[in-house]
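Here is the promised in-class demo. Please do not try to memorize the tokens; focus on the logic of going from shape to residues.
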């Protein structure tokens, strides 16, 4: 709980949806609870924790459909830095928390471009009447 006069610049637990690994974990939970309505995001694995699940899925898909493209999104990079695509386990190199997702070959586009959503919230505190200087 915030004390009177304190200013908060982040929502509590906001990193649950702003970090790649946490968002993937939340979306997978929602998919388990609510089913197909949450099939809008690609198959995702949080490495190193999900490595054995990823390895099993990767092998199954490779045997069934041939080489597939995957994207690796290291947690330590902000913005677009550090992402890379791979289709072989030998090309998957990571250090620390990483999200690996099956690459979407035919993504939804707006005006022919890929997109993402950013949310910015701006708030301000009006000065109290005791802080306003009167002439």
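The designed amino acids, position by position:
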């Amino acid at each position: 709980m915030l004390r009177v006069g304190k200013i908060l610049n982040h929502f509590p637990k906001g990193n649950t949806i702003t970090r790649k690994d946490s968002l993937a974990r939340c979306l997978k939970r929602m998919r388990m609870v609510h089913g197909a309505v949450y099939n809008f995001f690609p198959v995702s694995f949080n490495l190193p924790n999900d490595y054995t699940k990823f390895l099993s899925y990767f092998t199954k898909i490779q045997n069934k459909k041939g080489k597939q493209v995957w994207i690796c999104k290291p947690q330590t990079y902000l913005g677009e830095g550090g992402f890379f695509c791979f289709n072989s386990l030998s090309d998957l190199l990571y250090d620390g928390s990483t999200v690996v997702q099956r690459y979407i070959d035919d993504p939804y586009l707006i005006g022919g471009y890929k997109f993402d959503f950013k949310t910015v919230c701006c708030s301000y505190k009006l000065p109290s009447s005791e802080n306003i200087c009167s002439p």
